[in-house]
Amino acid sequence: MFSSLVTIPIYTSTSYGFNNSEEGADLFALRKAGSIYSALTNPIVSIPEHRIAALEGGSAAVAFSSGIAAIFNKTISICQGSDNIISTTLLYICSVNMFKVTPRLFINVHIINSDNLEDLAAKSDHKTKAIFV
């Protein structure tokens, strides 16, 4: 889709024009690919996503503004209330701090001061969805 672009242009708009109301309706109904509103789709983000997917042989990719945003998204994607996450304190401190507030989402987080697999496994049970090391 964007393979001919060498340098990605900077789009300073947050919204995009449509040629007619039918095109706008098709874009918002996801019947047509294109940019709608920068909070949803944005060429500055979608071009690298398409390129990464192509490099990895995937059908799609999702870019995040930070590693913490990616970890949080994955956490809330795989967990629901009363599920468990196990984390070591030996991670990047922002990851540990994010996990400290995750119980607000009713996800139980066990943070231990070890990277020993046996210590981590000891905290695991049938509700454990992820172990971050």
What does this 3D model show about the protein?
The chain is α/β, with parallel strands linked by helices. The chain has 2 domains: 1-63, no CATH class; 67-131. 37% of the residues lie in helices and 11% in strands. It is built from 5 helices and 3 strands, in the order αααβαβαβ. Strand 1, helix 4 and strand 2 form a beta-alpha-beta unit. The longest helix has 14 residues, at 43-56. The protein is elongated, with a radius of gyration of 20 Å.
Précis, in short:
Its cofactor is pyridoxal 5'-phosphate. With 133 residues, this protein is α/β, with parallel strands linked by helices. It contains five helices and three strands; from the N terminus they run αααβαβαβ.
Task: Tag the structure with descriptive keywords.
37% helix, three-stranded parallel sheet, 2 domains, 3 strands, 133 residues, 11% strand, alpha/beta
Level of helix content?
A: 25-40%
Structural classification: alpha/beta
| Low-pLDDT segments, ≥5 res | none
Gyration radius, rounded: 20 Å
Summed up, the domain count is: 2
Mean pLDDT: 86
What sequence of helices (H) and strands (E) makes up the elements? HHHEHEHE
Q: State the end-to-end CA separation.
A: 37 Å
Shape: elongated
Please state roughly what percent of the residues sit in beta strands, choosing from under 5%, 5-15%, 15-25%, 25-35%, 35-45% or over 45%: 5-15%
Given the structure, what is the number of helices? 5
For the sheet with most strands, the description reads: 3 strands, parallel
The strand order across the widest sheet is 2-1-3
Q: How many DSSP-defined strands?
A: 3
Protein name: O-acetylhomoserine (Thiol)-lyase
Pfam family, one: Cys_Met_Meta_PP
Cofactor: pyridoxal 5'-phosphate
GO molecular function, one term: cysteine synthase activity
